[in-house]
Amino acid sequence: MNSSKHTELANHAWSVADLLRGDYKQSDYGKVILPFTVLRRLECVLEPTREKVAEIAEQHKESGIDPDRFLRRASGHSFYNRSSLTLKKIAADPQNAAQNLQVYVGAFSDNARGVLDRFEFAQQIKRLDTAGLLYKVVGTFTDLDLRPEVVPNHNMGYIFEELIRRFAEQSNETAGEHFTPREVIQLMVRLLVAPDGDALQLPGTVRTVLDPACGTGGMLSAMDDLITEFNEDATVEVYGQELNPESWAICRSDLMIKGQDPENIAFGNSFSDDGHKRKTFDYMLANPPFGVEWKKVKDEVENEHKALGDAGRFGAGLPRINDGSLLFLQHMIDKMKPVDVNGKGGSRIAIVFNGSPLFTGAAGSGESEIRRWILENDWLEGIVALPDQLFYNTGISTYFWILTNRKSPDHKGKVVLLDARDQWQKMRKSLGDKRKALGKEHIAEVVKLYGEALAVAGDAEHPLHGKVKVFANEDFGYQRITVERPLKLRFEVTEETLTALEASKAIQKLPQAPVLADAFKSLMGASWGTKQDAWLALKDAVVQAGGTWPTGAPFNKALRDVLGVRDPGGEVQLVKGQPEPDGELRDYENVPLGEDVEEYLAREVHPHVPDAWIDGSKTKVGYEVPFTRHFYVYEPPRPLTEIDAELKALEEEIQTLLGEVTE
């Protein structure tokens, strides 16, 4: 089925909007169209066995035996409908449409009825009936041919996604929160599964897949398709969790139709209500929403972080509240299968991020600590930079992170960075922010390049050598050192000094404050190079004025603050015999992990400030992945002569045009 057919069927479903206009707000159209599309799809799937199921349901009506097992077997699916009603029959009886539709929906098995309940379908039936629209809407959907032989499951996903995109546009929601472009998913799953191709072809292969932000289930479907492409006899069990009720319902209905267990798709927030506790998976993948805050689950996440530490999901650290992307990654890492002594087991993870998780957060921050935890455990296999304008809801650059706890021997201790930002083709028509797409040739090229990354990076003659770089894990680490310089002061009495004296609470609360003020005035204009000389002169002035010299550390500190003036040639201030650091001159440097910080100081700092030193107590270890910097290629500015020639040519062109106007 081509894309025009998807659009045609989506247009048919969305044509109901013409009936709803006036009685429904545009933002509510999807609340009717999406559940009716699901209902029609379920009906079309069950049509071949409908009469047989109704017959068996009638036979067991008075038997007292739960017929669920028999009805499932008769329908050929994990769901069924016991009623002899159809949407066509319901539409033909306008007066009883609401009652019949409720009976029809109630006759579905619990799992199918639960899907429709998430759409609050009963409320929509009542609202449509009150508006006199129900039989018309039902009639429109009876003409929508969604039989599996006409619309295979894979293609049905495209239709649902098109409807959701339109729903999101009408309601000012973000379509990208619900699904990911299919060609992006294709690249993602192939990068994830590619190293396991041989193992997947073994007889009796069973693989489990999790998407903790599964939306309509596009990624799960793609993983199922790809694994069975390697081995048609493989068993693929897919699991997911979704917060949006409409997306959750569509995903569950899709699994039911495919014969998967719909109970594997949990509803709710993956952070506060993990629907797959204590489970582990072979493959995990996700496209969590970019830059979405996690304030609603702040208490639950922070409690787990503090109470469980490394025994929980978020022991490594917590990112800033306005972006929960790295929480999703920690959640997934927690569900990796352990690797046994023979190297068997383990998991692979792929997740879509924007640029923020690469570098946001200084050393010691939650983000940096999460990156440190991942890299020091040697889980990060590679990062692939994607073209911009690839997603529906954002035009910014995005990245695949590929992680595994079973790296191949040649990848151990290494991270692959692959620049695929030029692998795209322009779309004929933009969809939201999406103006670029990945063609099949681009997907194949990136997968091939990723698989050969180590060889390409080591071959300077390879035509794509500049697109791949391989680093050791520790190359992304650095030591954040605090460089201190001594506080140097001279001491003087000026008008500013007297003003500061009057503003100093520590001095003004002293009983001899007036005497101090008079003594200072007598020394107006005086200046001293050392604190000792200044204090002696001031003390003599206070005594001559008939006062006593105050004592105590608070007074001495306050007096120094009043009289002291920073001066590069001034006296170095000491604390317990050691130079006192000047907070205004404090600086920070990032030193590569493994490099001796004292050698760095001597080489990079002392030639400029010989008296600087490192405060070792403040040194922190941080990790970041400066992807763009590693692939930056310097482009020299155009020669001035070339620019000048271009300007002259433009001037001549303008003069010619002006001449034509005046003739």
> What's the β-strand tally?
21
Find the structural class using helix and strand composition.
Answer: alpha+beta
Strands in their spatial order, largest beta sheet: 3-2-1-4-5-7-6-8-11
Please outline the major beta sheet. Answer: 9 strands, mixed
Radius of gyration: 35 Å
Quick one: overall form?
elongated
Number of helices: 29
Regions with little confidence, pLDDT below 50 for 5+ residues: none
User: What's the end-to-end separation, in Å?
Assistant: 61 Å
Strand content: 5-15%
Description:
By secondary structure, the protein is α+β, with helices and mostly antiparallel strands. It has a nine-stranded mixed beta sheet with strand order 3-2-1-4-5-7-6-8-11, sandwiched between helices. Strands 12, 19, 20 and 21 form a four-stranded antiparallel beta sheet that branches. It is elongated, with a radius of gyration of 35 Å. The relative contact order is 0.07. The model has no long low-confidence stretch (mean pLDDT 92). It comes from Streptomyces edwardsiae.
